[in-house]
Description:
The chain is an alpha/beta fold. The protein has helices spanning 18-30, 41-51, 67-77, 92-99, 112-126, 163-174, 182-188, 201-214, and strands at residues 10-14, 34-38, 55-59, 61-62, 65-66, 82-87, 104-107, 138-140, 143-145, 152-154, 157-159, 180-181, 221-224, 228-231. It has two domains: 10-126, 3-Layer(aba) Sandwich (Rossmann fold); 138-231, Orthogonal Bundle (Arc Repressor Mutant, subunit A). Helices cover 39% and strands 22% of the residues. Strands 2-1-3-6-7 form a five-stranded parallel beta sheet, with helices on both faces. Strands 8-9-10-11 form a four-stranded antiparallel beta sheet, with helices on one face. The relative contact order is 0.10.
Amino acid sequence: xxxxxxxxxxxxxxxxxxxxxxxxxxxxxxxxxxxxxxxxxxxxxxxxxxxxxxxxxxxxxxxxxxxxxxxxxxxxxxxxxxxxxxxxxxxxxxxxxxxxxxxxxxxxxxxxxxxxxxxxxxxxxxxxxxxxxxxxxxxxxxxxxxxxxxxxxxxxxxxxxxxxxxxxxxxxxxxxxxxxxxxxxxxxxxxxxxxxxxxxxxxxxxxxxxxxxxxxxxxxxxxxxxxxxxxx
Length: 232
């Protein structure tokens, strides 16, 4: 894992098509990432175990297994790992399934500049600094977000969130009871300057947060239809 003074991060690229893996590696290295490549699940697990990358860029369909299963195993071994999927499948069910535990997904064919931008954005919102100052927790109602450990509690009970879910909830908490427009969430949480109008990533992650938070108390996230989201 790299330090704050070194390259922007170490990326594990898991892609069995050599030409695609080479293009991704060249582009990421040009932008000062350290890059490791693996064509199979077995090799990816071995590499990740030795090097502990900051992010994994995973093809969904691999010759010896499913990239989503690989992502779950990598995340279980390294909870702070950022996960981005590469997939030729863009059906809503596939997208929702991928975003259930990953931080982003990119459909094939892709623009290489977009891939670099997406990986950079994911790391910016998920990777803490190597040394964090002690900061007071963020509080809203019975929610408490520990800005040093990135832990979330509701009514004293721990809520397990992915890095992106945490970033979304933190932004809503920081905005108090205000309604935050969807475009602002895309810009500040996902670092999207020009997100596609049909993007449903915000709605998807709001549903994940609601499922986890509402299990511990009354509904806390409100919707202003056609505008955005806020906290009750």
